[in-house]
Amino acid sequence: MEPVKIVVVGSLNVDLVVRTPRVPQDGETIVGKEFSRFFGGKGANQAVAACKQGAHTVMAGRVGDDLFGQDQVRSLAEQGISTEGIIIDKEHPTGIASIILDERGSNRIIVVPGANGAYTPEDVENIRPLIEEADALVVQLETPLDAVARALKVGWELGKLTVLNPAPAAELPAELFRHVSVITPNETEAALLTGVEVSDVDSARQAAEILRGKGVGQVIITLGARGVYGLSSQGEFHIPAHKVEVVDTVAAGDTFTGALAVMLGEGKSLEEAAQYANAAAAIAVTRPGAQPSVPTRAEVLAFLKES
Length: 307
Ligand code: RIB
Description:
The chain is about 35% helix and about 25% strand. It is α/β, with parallel strands linked by helices. α1 packs across α9 (about 250-265) and α10 packs across α11 (about 295-305). The relative contact order is 0.15. Alpha-D-ribofuranose (RIB) binds near residues 42, 97, 111 and 254.
């Protein structure tokens, strides 16, 4: 089978991660356990996830003309990701994410967008030929909304599968939903988009029905330890979470979205794709870092066989 072709339009960050026994209080200084630097950014993480599942993957976005940017682009290229859609921005530094990881592997993230914040609708127009060649387009919300909206519109008009991971949580214009084939919010993001407090399968169903009512064909809501809820014209499903030892939850959602896009691009049903993506995300949380935590297709298939 020919590899599925995925274009990811989105953010590229360098993650500066501090592991700490607890989060400091206001005005308090504490001693952390470990400092690490990883390549991250929701867009780049999703591109890595797609590539590691065997997709022909193109990354589009902006990085600064600095060491962080050069290193990130080199790392993506070394993994086999096409970087032709990445602009080197001379005026803004590469985006960074300052991440605090606690003992349970939970994270608190502050993103300073830098060059990601300078990505424009015109940048999207310039990669129209790349989107045209792709099977699926994947976007998130770490780049400006007008560029995200343009990417979805272009992808939709070209008849591509358009996947929106609405993270970080933000309110979205009504028109944007009509250009989305698949949306993958977590509980917080689903709540912001629908006004429904999502805490279990019933509330996820309510939120998913609202999102379908806004024009999104297929809805997946990731529920953390409660698994994944899905709703489409084919019906609904709930997939429980795998029980794993959590080390670091950063990029679990990105792994899920990137893997889901590849499976859907290959023609799997929403439920089959979500089952696969759920396993990929379960593996990711057992490993440190954003991009290094993403499993390969062989690892996901082996995990699914054992579980
Ligand atoms: O989703 C995880 C990502 O969010 C991190 O890699 C960080 O860069 C932030 O963008």
